[in-house]
Specification:
about 240 residues, alpha+beta, Structural Genomics Hypothetical 15.5 Kd Protein In mrcA-pckA Intergenic Region, Chain A, Alpha-Beta Plaits, 3 domains, nine-stranded mixed beta sheet, four-stranded antiparallel beta sheet
Length: about 240
């Protein structure tokens, strides 16, 4: 059954934006089952039809996975009445899809953001029982003592009485910077953890989420599709052994 427009197919498989796809189709650069595509509106069966893009076979993936280097001042939401969102950094035709940020980074927290349309996987990645690691590079206002570092690693009590799960912390020699690894994601958690030891976060950047590592070739606000290898490992998170 023909279920998807050709330009949408090329967009979700990462070959081009839908606007670029229209131009390439008109130029005769796309074939469907050996025939030159006649229109961007042509309907195809993504699981059955063979699509060649500039002579290369296009592999269909049911879901879209995007890795973004989130900049400061951008909110992790699909829409917001006041601020720009991570979806606003994507091409306009991609904003009309079912993409959403997997989890949240605070407005002023930088770094790795996973954007997808796979709700079932996102639920697994964010479920507390899955214990997917999230690693952040931080800088604090004051050096952190060894005693306070042990409190992080044993779990500490926040201002509302919540006791955090044990977190790994690695401190640079200065003591006021390093990495924190969480297996949960409470609201403003690292900020609140620092406040619980009478300190304050001055810089926070997520550098790893599960098997995904921040791509340092991406400038702030830039993004790329995940590789097939990254997707294969990511999709295993939370599955029963």
């Amino acid at each position: 059954m023909k279920t998807m427009r050709l330009d949408k197919f090329l967009g979700i498989t990462g070959m081009s934006s839908r606007s670029e796809a229209k131009k390439l189709i008109r130029a005769g650069s796309v074939t469907v089952n050996g025939c030159v595509a006649s229109s961007a509106e042509e309907k195809i069966d993504p699981e059955q039809d063979e699509i060649l893009f500039c002579g290369k076979k296009v592999i269909y993936r049911k879901y879209t996975y995007i890795l973004m280097n989130k900049p400061e001042g951008i909110v992790s939401a699909t829409e917001d009445g006041r601020d720009r969102t991570v979806l606003d950094l994507l091409p306009s035709d991609m904003r009309k899809t079912d993409l959403f940020p997997c989890g949240r980074l605070d407005k002023n927290t930088l770094g790795l953001m996973l954007i997808t349309d796979n709700g079932e996987l996102a639920h697994r990645l964010l479920a507390p029982k899955t214990h997917v690691e999230k690693v952040y590079y931080f800088r604090a206002k004051f050096p952190i003592s060894e005693e306070d570092a042990k409190r992080f690693e044993n779990g500490l009590i926040l201002e509302d009485g919540y006791e955090t799960k044990p977190a790994k912390i690695f401190l640079e020699p200065s003591g006021d910077a390093g990495t924190i690894t969480l297996i949960e994601g409470k609201y403003h958690q690292i900020k609140r953890m620092l406040e619980a030891i009478d300190n304050k976060i001055t810089y926070l950047e997520r550098i790893r989420f599960g098997n995904l590592t921040l791509d340092t070739t991406l400038s702030r606000g830039e993004w790329r599709y995940l590789t097939q290898e990254e997707i294969s490992v990511l999709e295993q998170h939370g599955k029963e052994k």
